[in-house]
Amino acid sequence: MNQFKEWGFSAQWWRGEKGEYWVFAQVILFVGFMLLPVYPAIALDNLSPIWKYADWGITGIFGLVALLLLLSGSIKLGTNLTPLPHPKDDGELVTGGVYALVRHPIYSGVIFLAIAYSCWEISLSHAIGAIVLLLFFDIKARKEESWLSSKFADYDQYRSQVKKLIPWIY
What we know:
Elements: H1 2-7, H2 20-35, H3 49-77, H4 105-121, H5 124-151, H6 155-161
């Protein structure tokens, strides 16, 4: 229970004042994504080996990007890290490192990991799941950014200079 308190969960978490419901919804989406059946978009048996190798390469690239975003984002946040979209009361605004490339690298890492898995399986259902995760994190990031703007005076300037979820794109 101390870990939840350290992350910023309130004693009355059921009120959702710090975004606790977003965390619960995120867990449900993760479990749902993992339980999705694999519906191959194309038959792998009919592909030439070059396409299989290309798929492995694309999967590796997305997986590596996901790993880099997740690890560097988590490390750079340090004690500011919380699963809640609400910033910690004693938190500081982090804008350096990977946060100079994307405002929400951990969310981005999860999205890229979902894309990597859908590429690995060439699964249409998982590709749709990755899109659902992208939409969910986009909405969660909007809520988080409203709290960050209220807490940190220079957040709006940072937001205007750095992309939200996909480096250099969005």
